[in-house]
Amino acid sequence: MNDATAWWILAGLLVAVELGTGSFYLLMLALGAAAGALGAHGGLSPSTQIVLAALTGAVTTFGWYRYRRQSGAATPDVEGNRDVNLDVGETVQVQGWGPQGQTKVMYRGTQWDAHYQGQGVPQPGPHRIAALRGNTLELTRSN
C-alpha cells in the first residue's frame, strides 16, 4: 500500500466516524488527511505529508471553531427545554422560601431543592418549573 492510499483510507475512516458521531470537527481532520494524500500524490516525503496533514487539519479545525463562535452557534439550553425535560412547565406548591430564595418542595413523590428564578421577593404558592439544573428545580411564579 502506498502512502496516498493510506491517507485516503484514513480520510474515509474519519468521515465514517463523523457520520456516526455528528462531530463536524472530524471532517476538518479528514481534510487534513486528504491534504496528506494529495501531498503523497505530489511526491512529497512522508514527514512533509504528515506536517501538511497536521497543519491543514489544525487550520481547518481552528477555522471551524472560530466560525461557530462568530456565527453565534451556541449550545442549546437543554435544562429549560420542555422537549428535552418533561418536568419543565409543571407546577409545584411552595410552602415558604428561605432568605436566599431557596426552598424544598415535594415533586413526583420526593423532596427537591428549589431555587427562585423570578423577579422580586418570592411568595409561597404555586410555582412553575422553569428549568432543572442537576437536582435543583428553578422555579418561577405561576400565574
Automatic annotation (TrEMBL):
The chain crosses the membrane at residues 6-38, 50-67. InterPro entries: NfeD-like_C. GO terms for biological process: proteolysis. Keywords: Hydrolase, Membrane, Protease, Transmembrane, Transmembrane helix. The lineage of its organism: Bacteria, Pseudomonadati, Pseudomonadota, Betaproteobacteria, Burkholderiales. The keyword Transmembrane helix applies. The keyword Zinc does not apply. Pfam families: NfeD. GO terms for molecular function: peptidase activity. This is Membrane protein implicated in regulation of membrane protease activity. Residues 85-138 form the NfeD-like C-terminal domain.
